[in-house]
Write a structure and sequence with these properties.
Number of helices: 5
Shape: elongated
Largest sheet: 4 strands, mixed
Structural class: alpha/beta
């Protein structure tokens, strides 16, 4: 069977992003990095091809210039067990030029979109009580970084 592996096109800083991501997320590693030779005009030393794993999943990346910037049309969904994980990833990924966005979304300093989603949010919006679910969704819509306690309070009608 063929593999489907996300391939990320960075402007010119893929290696820094890859090293940051793999240090941040447990179960991650840099598998290989090949750089352009100095003979390639404007690209010498930049990433021609990189293979890395985030939480055990394969990704590829390259530096190829600004022609195709990242957009929110594709995002990386990071499932979090608790508020501590949400906060750890949120603050690390929004640091140094990252941007908070509504409803658990952010852009990191390289422009990659992420969704930092606590498992509890998913549970609440799937609640079999439609009123609880609706209140949870409404609370989420008013947040950037998800606050689990506030979300639970809203779902409970508090």
């Amino acid at each position: 069977m063929s593999d489907v592996i996300p391939f990320l096109w960075f402007d010119d800083d893929a290696e820094s992003a890859i090293r940051f991501y793999t240090a941040l997320i447990p179960g991650s590693e840099v598998v290989s990095v090949a750089t352009y030779p100095d003979e390639v005009p404007g690209m010498g030393g930049k990433v021609m091809h990189a293979h890395f794993r985030l939480a055990g999943r394969d990704y590829y990346a390259m530096d190829a210039g600004p022609q195709f910037p990242f957009t929110e049309a594709i995002s990386l969904f990071l499932s979090c067990a608790d508020q501590e994980e949400v906060d750890r990833y949120w603050y690390a990924l929004t640091a140094d030029g990252g941007q908070e966005q509504p409803c658990a979304w952010l852009k990191d300093r390289w422009g990659v979109s992420w969704q930092i989603v606590p498992d509890r949010l998913v549970e609440l919006i799937r609640d079999t009580d439609p009123d609880r679910s609706h209140r949870a969704v409404q609370a989420m819509l008013g947040m950037t970084r998800i606050d689990i306690a506030a979300l639970e309070a809203a779902a409970d009608g508090s």
